[in-house]
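ugh ok fine here u go
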Amino acid sequence: MHEFDDIENIETSSLLNDPSFFKELKTRYNKYHWFFQRWFSPFRFRHCNFVQFEIINVDQVYCSGEALPDDHGHTTHYEYDPRPPRAKNPLINQKLFSICLKACDPDCSWSLLPSFLHKCRPLPHNSHKWKRIPRKKSAFNISWSQPGEVAFGIEADYALSFAILFIYHVVFIFSALGFWVYWLRNHPDDLQNASVPTFTVLGLLGAFWGLLGRRIGVS
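structure:
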C-alpha cells in the first residue's frame, strides 16, 4: 500500500461536459493500475471522496481526510457549485458517482456487441455534474509547492465486488473437487490424498472471510 498519493491535474474549460470529464478521470485512474488489477481485483473503482491533500516534502503528498475548501477558508482559490452552506460533503453522492463512472464513454467499444449482451448507457452531453467538484484556479504542482501547503480535490475509493469474489470461490472449489474426482479415478483407495486440496481450499477461504470480517468490523 502506498503511503503517499499520486496527484493528477485535470484541466477544465467551459466546453467540458460529464462524458468527457469522467472518461478522462477513468483514463487517469487506469494510468496507475495495470490491466490485471483493473479486471481481476475484487476491489472496484466506484466513486471518489472529496478530500484535502497536504504536502509533506517534494513529490510527497498525502490525504488528510474528507474536507471542502470552504471548510478551511479557501473560498477564493476554488470554483465549484453548489457551495456550503447550500451543499454538504460529499457534493456527489456515492451512488450517483458510481453511475457516472460506469456509464459508457462516447467511443464505447462494447457497443459492437448485440443489444442483449450490452446496451450503451452514456451520460447526456448537457450534464455538468463535474462542476460540483472543487477546481483549483491554478495547478497544484507538488514539485514546486512548499511543505505544509494544502489542496482540495477528489480521491479514488473502492467497493468490494461480491460477484468477482463468488467467481473466485467457484473456480477454487470446483478445481479442488475436480482434482478429488480425478485422483480417485486413478487411485480408488487413496481418499486421504484426494481430499487434501479440497480441505486446504475450504480452510483458506474460511481464513479469508475471517480476516475480511475482522477488518470490516475494525473499520
